[in-house]
Amino acid sequence: MSASTAALSGIPFRKVDIDQYDEDRVLPSELYQPDPRPPQQVLSDTQAKDRAVRGLLQRGDVAAALKECVREGEWPYGEDSVPEIVQAKQLALNLILSVLNSSRSTDIPALVATLEPAEQVTLMKYLYKAMENLGDSSGNVVLGWHEKLVEVAGIGCIVRVMTDRRRV
């Protein structure tokens, strides 16, 4: 083993961020406008939305609860390095999942049809986030919602989610 190979053997080379050495790299802050609200306000707004949506679910109004969850401009996005933002994102995801789990599969197309196109895109973002993080816990529910959302909103909804840099 050569000296250079021996020196590099202790470095986890697959975890090295090579982009840090690129002077032309693009930062997330250059791709989209950050949320103008301070992180603590993002968290408190998400907690208030959580209380409102849970109240709607207790009354059995799943359509209003879903609409409240995905209302444009009120969902948390931003840097994952800020603890309040991470907590708000997790709270919002759990809230969406509770709404999705509260509905019957036969009601999904009607619920999705009531959403505006921007709200459908937001719902799709949360579905992909749920697929990314939850594994098997709500897989059937999330896939069922994804199927019905694509039937109503079309493939363009998926394209808009993939091209939008604001992650939920």
From TrEMBL:
GO terms for cellular component: Arp2/3 protein complex. It is found in: Cytoplasm, Cytoskeleton. InterPro entries: ARPC5 (IPR006789), ARPC5_sf (IPR036743). Keywords: Cytoplasm, Cytoskeleton. GO terms for biological process: actin cortical patch organization; Arp2/3 complex-mediated actin nucleation; regulation of actin filament polymerization. It comes from the Eukaryota. Functions as a component of the Arp2/3 complex which is involved in regulation of actin polymerization and together with an activating nucleation-promoting factor (NPF) mediates the formation of branched actin networks. Functions as component of the Arp2/3 complex which is involved in regulation of actin polymerization and together with an activating nucleation-promoting factor (NPF) mediates the formation of branched actin networks. Arp2/3 complex plays a critical role in the control of cell morphogenesis via the modulation of cell polarity development. Belongs to the ARPC5 family. This is Actin-related protein 2/3 complex subunit 5. It comes from Sporidiobolus salmonicolor (Yeast-like fungus).
